[in-house]
Amino acid sequence: MKIRSEKFYIFFIFFYFFFNIEGNSKEAPSSFADLAEKLTPSVVYISTTQTVVTNVNPFPFEFPPGSPFEDMFKEFGAPKTRKASALGSGFIIDSKGIVITNNHVIKGAEDILVKVEGDKEYKAKVLGADPLSDIAVLKIEAKEKLTSVKFGDSDKARIGDWVIAIGNPFGLGGTVTSGIISARNRDIGMSRYEDFIQTDASINVGNSGGPLFDMNGDVIGINTAILGQSGSIGIGFAIPSNSAKKVIEQLIEFGETKRGWLGVRIQVVTKEIADVEKLDKPRGALVASVAENSPSDKAGIKAGDIILEFNGVLINEMKELPKIVAQTEVGKTVNVKVWRNKKEISKKIKLGRLETSEDFKVKKEKKDPKTTEIESLKINVRPIEAKDIEERNLSKNTKGLVITEIASDSPINYLNVGNIIVEAQKKAIRTIGDLEIAVKQALNSEEKTLLIAIYNNQNQRRYIGVKLD
């Protein structure tokens, strides 16, 4: 009897664990129909338009690509204005008409149309957009109450969990795809703050800005990128909802972001560096330099320090630190643990704001050089930069103004964007003010003619007489 009871006990344990494992595992849904039907009304389809000016070839033949004559003869072409359109997706998070999408979907758009439930169209305005996280918040005015969805907790999403994506691939609209979470914390080099959810749910061109839902119908990601240009290959990427929520809240409240800022440049802690510093293993973020008068500088952080912990969060890899700092409230005083002289010390740092830091301002200015409109010529110009001179192999002493935009009814609409104005009325042009004075003088003269010298896009110098009205 004793043997039989032991066998029964073993048999009982086997079945207990077997059924317990079966009970805890999640079976594949037999259908996504009910969930898709419930969520589809909250997903919108976005179309944008912007004006593009191109020169039309006036000749009945084409020059081979790269030919030195290609740009030269383009200058004789007539400018042609056309409307370029783009498609994307988005979703409603407030019944009053707050729509979330990607920044790259609406960037540069002159008009934004949002289509709700397949047939209702609304003009949208941008409440705020953030290129660093690739998120934009739109507002549409609708008389009726709109169907909205809520964000879920993306930190609870696990590799292998079922998800569905709804969006507007290739402009087809109302498309539902399903799959699983394939990976977490992906960094694909698209932006500064990356922590993508990877999924094998089919995501294609036009899905950008659309939602990635969990099986509770909550948004756990914003579909943003695909791997490859030929369409879905089973590798798509979504911004986690927990990262997106903080950006969205700030864009709605302030129209801009307010990210925490330490004021350090960091690099990876390699095994060799860890060995030299007598650190137990490669971890943390090595401070390469500290910005003058930054929060870190004021707190006594030095180049060579290794940041091991920020505000109670361990830093295992260098790339984790910028994300955590950016998501921390501006003005908050945090405890930072650093490794210095082979021992751990603590520093109190009051965070600054990234967007008002000198480093951020310099980068922004370099990325988006200021342009000025010359009304009489109906063009936009900017001062030539060292980068222009280097890229175009011009003389180091070259001064002038680079044309950045030309209106279709400009008196010099036969020129090209990128041409450089180096002289006007036989006087060198060094600043925007120089050109404005020359234009004014020409307008006050009897001839009302402006003589300018340019470098075209082949770096050939030409004189052009411009009749002003």
Walk me through the topology.
Layout: H1 2-24, H2 33-39, E1 43-56, H3 68-74, E2 78-94, E3 98-101, H4 103-106, E4 111-116, E5 120-130, E6 135-140, E7 162-167, E8 175-186, E9 196-199, E10 211-213, E11 219-226, E12 236-240, H5 241-254, E13 260-261, E14 264-268, H6 271-276, E15 285-290, H7 295-299, E16 306-310, E17 313-314, H8 320-326, E18 333-340, E19 343-350, E20 352-353, H9 358-367, E21 372-374, E22 379-383, H10 386-392, E23 401-406, E24 420-424, E25 427-428, H11 432-444, E26 449-455, E27 461-467
Antiparallel strand pairs: 1-2, 1-4, 2-3, 3-6, 4-5, 5-6, 7-8, 7-10, 8-9, 9-12, 10-11, 11-12, 13-20, 14-15, 15-16, 16-17, 16-18, 18-19, 21-22, 22-23, 23-24, 24-25, 24-26, 26-27
Give descriptors for this structure:
single chain, about 475 residues, alpha+beta, Thrombin, subunit H, Pdz3 Domain, 4 domains, 6-stranded antiparallel barrel, 11 helices, 27 strands, about 35% strand
The quaternary organization reads as: single chain
Strand content: 35-45%
Q: What are the low-pLDDT stretches, counting only 5+ consecutive residues below 50?
A: 8-25
Average pLDDT works out at: 84
Radius of gyration, whole Å: 29 Å
The CATH architecture assignment of the largest domain turns out to be Beta Barrel
Helical fraction equals 10-25%
CATH topology of the largest domain: Thrombin, subunit H
N-C termini distance: 114 Å
Largest sheet: 7 strands, antiparallel
| SS summary, helix count | 11
